[in-house]
Design brief:
The chain is of the alpha+beta class and about 160 residues long. It contains four helices and six strands. The two termini are about 15 Å apart.
Length: about 160
């Protein structure tokens, strides 16, 4: 069964430091792990961290949490290929395409293919900070299930 986890949940200072954009994006884009990459509201994955920082500066929101890093993992028995995961990721990021910059990477370096997402907490549309409300979370989870046609279990 697929699982979805938001990284750093419950960790008080996770993704608050000034290197959060670069470290999160660089981690997911590691060429040893990432076989496919993409995103929305960025000119290229290589410039994603810089563009996310620029968005935060444009709206005067350099303080606070910088990114939301999450991982969608597929179990071995689902037989999801990296190519399928890439198609899923392209559709999944559309959920936030109206408001946020998101970069993703499909990792195939472990027994389970998985997708990392890094989303800028600051809206590139008009500047508000991502609120992380339950309604948004459940809406996103429903979107993921529609895209993948798989049951997805949230992991805390």
């Amino acid at each position: 069964m697929s699982t979805y986890k938001v990284a750093g949940r419950g960790e008080k200072n996770k993704f608050f430091d000034e290197t959060a954009y670069r470290s999160a994006v660089n981690y997911i884009l590691d060429p040893v792990k990432a076989v496919y990459t993409g995103g929305c509201n960025i000119s290229s994955v290589q410039l994603a961290a810089q563009e996310m920082e620029e968005t935060a500066m444009e709206f005067g929101k350099e303080d606070g949490k910088k990114v939301r890093h999450s991982v969608l993992s597929f179990s071995e028995d689902e037989h999801i290929t990296p190519e399928q995961a890439n198609r899923f990721a392209n559709e999944i990021v559309k959920y936030y395409a109206q408001e946020h910059q998101v970069v993703y990477a499909v990792h195939a370096n472990t027994d389970d293919v998985h997708i990392h997402f890094v989303m800028n907490h600051i809206s590139c549309a008009d500047g508000p900070r991502y609120q992380g409300k339950k309604s948004d979370y459940y809406g996103f989870m429903n979107h993921v299930k529609k895209v993948t046609h798989l049951p997805v279990i949230p992991v805390k």
